[in-house]
Amino acid sequence: MTIISQDRAPGDRPASSEEQESVSSGVLVYSSGLFLAVVLSAASFWVTNTSLLWGPGVPLGLAVLAIAQMGIHLVFFLHITSGPDNTNNVLALAFGVLIVTLIMVGSLWIMANLNANMMPPGSPMTMSMPH
Predict the structure, then answer these.
(1) Separation CA 68–CA 23 (nearest Å)
(2) 9 falls in which pLDDT band (50, 70, 90)?
(3) Which of 29, 62, 74, 88 could form a disulfide with 80 if both were Cys (CB 3.0 to 4.6 A apart)?
(4) pLDDT at residue 55 above 60?
(5) Do residues 28 and 42 lie in contact, with contact meaning Cβ atoms separated by under 8 Å?
(6) Looking at the predicted structure, is the pLDDT value of residue 57 above 50?
(7) Under 8 Å CB-to-CB from 82, ≥6 apart: which residues?
């Protein structure tokens, strides 16, 4: 038995009886996501400008707030959930994260290799002529 109200393809307009209910719930979801994103952004600025936190703990606090901010954006704005209809979205997100990670790690590897093989500053380049 299928429920008719949930038997819609993504992007289909809801039936007229559900339309008002859907619009008000959509506004509520986006408004609460915006509120949480603004609160997390304000908390990030507070963490960087306060002396109440232990100095070396500030980067960890910012990393935690950044991860929470990404979670808010994924759930409230991109609608990435663990539902069975979001499998393709989750796989696309995982592939994107893999590609970005490969690019970042590869760039850091190349820069570390270049740094290790650079000539030390102050040493002149001399060409030795065979006699």
Answers:
(1) 26
(2) very low
(3) 74
(4) yes
(5) no
(6) yes
(7) 90
**Residue 94 identity (one-letter amino acid):** A
Burial of residue 24, with CB atoms counted within 10 A of its CB: 0-12 exposed, 13-18 middle, 19 or more buried: exposed
Tell me phi and psi for residue 120, to 5 degrees. Answer: -60, 145
- pLDDT value of residue 83: 77
- Quick one: tokens of 123? 């040493």
**Whole-number pLDDT of residue 120:** 76
Paired tokens of 12: 């289909």
Question: What is the pLDDT averaged over residues 4-12?
Answer: 47
Q: How far apart are CA 30 and CA 72, in angstroms?
A: 10
Q: At CA 75, angle to CA 58 and CA 60, rounded to 5? A: 10
Model confidence pLDDT, tens digit, residues 98-123: 999 999 999 999 999 998 888 777 76
Q: 122's torsion region: left (phi>0), alpha (psi -120 to 50) or beta?
A: left
Which distant-in-sequence residues (6+ apart) come within 8 Å of 85 by Cβ?
A: 10
